[in-house]
Input
Amino acid sequence: MIAIDLEEERKEIVRRYRRLLRKSKPFLKSGDAKIIKKAFHLAADAHKDVRRKSGEPYIYHPLEVAQICVEEIGLGTTSIVSALLHDVVEDTECTIEEIEQEFGHKVATIIDGLTKIAGTFEYGSSQQAENFRKMLLTISQDLRVILIKLADRLHNMRTLDSMPRNKQLKIASETIYIYAPLAHRLGLYTIKSELEDLYLRYSERDAFKEISNKISETSASRTKFINKFIKPIKDELTKQGFKFSIKGRPKSIHSIWNKMRAQDVPFEEVYDLFAIRIILETTTEREKSDCWQIYSIVTDFYQPNPDRLRDWISTSKSNGYESLHTTVMSRSGQWVEVQIRSKRMDDIAEKGYAAHWKYKESGKSEESALEQWIGKVRDMLGQIDCTALEFVDEFRSNLFHTEVFVFTPKGDLRILPHDASALDFAFDIHSEIGVKCIGAKVNQKIVPINYKLNNGDQVEILTSNKQKANEDWLRFVVTSKAKSRIKDELKSDKKHIAEEGKETLLRKMKNLKIESNNETYERMRRFLRVDTQFDLYYKIGIQGITNQILRDFKEEKSTRLSKRGKMLGALDAKTFEKKLKKAKGDGNDMLLIGEDMDIVDYALSVCCNPIPGDDVFGFVTVSEGIKVHRTSCPNATELMSNHGHRMIKAKWTSQQELSFATGLKITGTDRVGLINDVTGIISRELKVNMRSLAIDTDHGIFEGTIKLYVNDTRHLDKLITKLEGVDGVEKVNRFD
Ligand code: MN
Output
């Protein structure tokens, strides 16, 4: 038992309260101090006799959270009051109505928001997702809720020591999962890296200890190094009359740890261990040119790495971050990152949104990128048609994404997540444009809708009223706006198709006098291998249904051979192989192309045009019998991985008199008589039928495409060898 000196404690509470007032004083309006005092007394009273896990009086916590709000985020009176009261409604008798009465509507809304998100998150659970979603919903009410929540979390992380181990791990992982990325996105860099470091301190204790020890061990030599490094820069900047300060400090433990892991190197080999920051006092009019001026001075002394120039002063990051970064080579052969920015930019970088807002009030910057982001969050929150887990996934992926900067035809800047496609861009402009997008013109060149945007692309969307969204689109859009809109489209589309399918089915059943009752439908679902009635209609809507299939269904002939001797209704490989064995005798479950034509309905697929000799497989399609593909067909991986149960073994019969269409591409240097020689070999010597021939010559380069019929790959190989022997021909390739 530790003896507690209550008198001393009371003094300490007052000391902390006075410190808070001192820090907030510069921006308090008249009357503000009184409200803060009232909030402090209410909180101190409500939490009276309550202690934190550490044994300290509880009121220390709200006082510290308020202090962080002021000092580290730059928030004002409303936030200080809310921070002081943030745990009152949740933990004490005090109600939200009382808060509203005493402190007004605004404070009550913020505290209500904070109370709602008070629950903790459990990694991977949907409860966590639900809580997180609730938290984000408060963004659309008042961003201060999130900022105070971050301050709350930061203080809890700073005092995590007194928690039991399992709680430590839980709180730490929530922090790295949600709060650190959120702080990053809001531009609160200092808070973000402190949260990350604290996470590491509790979750990877050894690594944390090792790295922090090494940092302090190397501190003396580093200071020496930094001083030597900045000396010439300092001298020159002073000579040129700049007002500035230079800070040199190691990168955060978390980022060093990340680098050690990513590059699998020891501490000593992490090459950019520290960053130098040059902060410049200048006017907003001059800051950009001054920063570049300093860049030029720095690179006069040290060679920059051209790949590591980051210009966030011409276009700020979407969280509002502005700075000019370069990495230069020091005289001792170490890379050093140099960050150049004005005092204003530094404030924004340190304090994020609030600082940004402050500068905005004084007339700088219009609709900023950060506000655009908050607008997007609001957009996303508006789309409630997804599960909480989906939502969190979406949101987190948007948190981590770096951005790509592109332009509209009129030159307006649009910021999209890295990996966004032309289609994302179309949806970003307007969802109606997205839905009708058929392609885009990027820097005057036509590109497909899945084109991945690059920085600086100027994008014009091409649309058509005939265009319709399809499932494929979901594979190359990354923005949540595009995804959810496409899903909506597909849903309504599917419903439409199913309705058409239902009509078709009912009509045909009536014609064939098939009774429509539950039992029929159940049998039919089994017959066509679908699970639900909706799937049945949808399938028919997509593929149609022939009278033959319905007749087969009616007569239950699906398991026997039809009167034409061909197999119908086989929908997976197993059934098919069984039937094949039955028809051809045991041990014969392989499709022989060329031979089995009379008993099996098959066709060579048009996507890869297989010819005898190619490695092939059969694929049981739903309505067109079996399709034979080359194993190298571009569609093969898709088919094999998603529909493995519908793949059947297939090979060519040896005696093959049929001919198959294929294509050859011939390139070489042009000369008189070359075309004649090439066509001569094809038609005269090898007796091959040519379907078409197209020849292009450009400045002496010859390129021909020939479509022709061959018997098998041996035949084709022979032809290729012959053609390659023609004088002037460089390369002969098969194409599909
Ligand atoms: Mn709290």
In short: Residues 120-124, 557-569 have pLDDT under 50 and may be disordered.
